[in-house]
Amino acid sequence: MRAARIMMRKEAFADYGEVQKRTWLLQRRLQMERPYELVRSDTIRQFFNERGPEGWKDFNQRYPDSNGFIIVSPVGFNKSKTLAVVYTGSSCGGLCGRWIFHLLEKDRSGGWKAVPGVTCVTMS
């Protein structure tokens, strides 16, 4: 049983590596309490590549009610689509941010839950 779980995790992480190699188009299908705008990653990078941390001033002028930005990676799955790996991050200025690799498992109701004890988090 343990070997099978390890194999399923390896499959999900391997698929995650593969899906990162492709270009994806994120569509407005996320249901969130707050309104949101989808912005290309190169648009976000433009604010900070030239001005570094000072880019937050320009970012906040362009997106005044945003309180920062969120990134979401493509999702990798194991073969049976019962495990998923996804990377999320949020940045709200300077030393304000959190970036996490999530390993999720499909539950009996068809929803997704974090696998306990499997987390990689960076915060500032």
Describe the model:
The structure is a single chain. This protein is of the alpha+beta class. The protein has one domain. It is 28% helix and 32% strand. It contains 3 helices and 5 strands; from the N terminus they run αααβββββ. The chain has helices at 2-19, 41-49, 55-62, and strands at residues 69-72, 76-77, 83-93, 96-106, 112-123. The chain starts with a helix and ends with a strand.
Short note summarizing the structure:
The protein has 124 residues and is of the alpha+beta class.
* Sheet of most strands: 5 strands, antiparallel
| Structural class assignment | alpha+beta
Helix content: 25-40%
Given as residue ranges, the uncertain stretches (5+ residues, pLDDT < 50) are none
Keywords:
alpha+beta; 28% helix; five-stranded antiparallel β-sheet; 3 helices; 124 residues
List the helices and strands and how they pair.
Elements (H helix, E strand, L loop, with lengths): L1 H18 L21 H9 L5 H8 L6 E4 L3 E2 L5 E11 L2 E11 L5 E12 L1
Antiparallel strand pairs: 1-3, 2-3, 3-4, 4-5
Helix pairs in contact: 2-3
